[in-house]
Amino acid sequence: MANIEKLLSGFDNFYKKYFIENPHVYKELSTKGQSPKTLIIACSDSRVDPSILLDVAPGEIFVIRNVANLVPAFDSDMSHCHGTSAAIEYAVKHLKVENIIVLGHSHCGGIKTLVEEHNHQHNFIDTWLEIADTPQMRQICKDYDFDAACSLCEREGIRISVSNLKTFPFVDEAISENRLKIHGWYFDLQTGHLEIIL
Ligand SMILES: [Zn+2]
């Protein structure tokens, strides 16, 4: 319960210190709508909140968060629940974002699970992580000790997501028409360093 009370008190602080003191911000956002220029695809991990890491204001970034900041390849069968793909479609086709940043991080629990075991269980997490279970990832796991493999696979996961983004026809079209750029960034929790991968 204490945690819930802290969150409600946090909202109270936001309301008094931000909402009331900056009345134009949400008034404009509610009347004009949102027009973020950037889509961030980040991990659900509680330590890597993009709004905190990138010091942005409300309305500045459109955010997708999932386990290990992964992007599945485009699937023409749209009958499944493609939450991440739906948000990518909305950001690119409707919001017309100019940049997509895949934001990975060190000490990622999702990537750690992938490195630890290649015998997938029939559950949502392992099925989701199969997106990054490529021959290249398996080779890294064979060639390096556990910590080094995790670190390399976290970076490789970013490359896989960037590559899968380009399989979406509307993303590919926007890139070729020079309306969209894709980036891969990696945040190190220990050093605080932001590495530009792509
Ligand atoms: Zn993570």
Short description:
With 198 residues, the chain is α/β, with parallel strands linked by helices.
Furnish the topology, listing elements before pairings:
Elements: H1 2-19, H2 23-32, E1 38-43, H3 50-53, E2 61-66, H4 83-94, E3 99-105, H5 109-116, H6 124-129, H7 135-143, H8 146-165, H9 169-176, E4 181-187, E5 194-196
Parallel strand pairs: 1-2, 1-3, 3-4
Antiparallel strand pairs: 4-5
The structure holds zinc ion.
Describe this structure in words.
- There is one protein chain.
- This protein is an alpha/beta fold.
- The chain folds into two domains: 1-33; 36-196, 3-Layer(aba) Sandwich (Beta-carbonic Anhydrase, Chain A).
- The protein is built from nine helices and five strands, in the order ααβαβαβαααααββ.
- It has helices at 2-19, 23-32, 50-53, 83-94, 109-116, 124-129, 135-143, 146-165, 169-176; strands spanning 38-43, 61-66, 99-105, 181-187, 194-196.
- The protein has a five-stranded mixed sheet, covered by helices on one side.
- A hairpin with a 6-residue loop joins strand 4 and strand 5 (194-196).
- Helix 5 crosses helix 8 and helix 7 (135-143) runs antiparallel to helix 8.
- The longest helix has 20 residues, at 146-165.
- It is globular, with a radius of gyration of 18 Å.
- The model has no long low-confidence stretch (mean pLDDT 96).
- The site of zinc ion (ZN) has 7 residues, from helix 5.
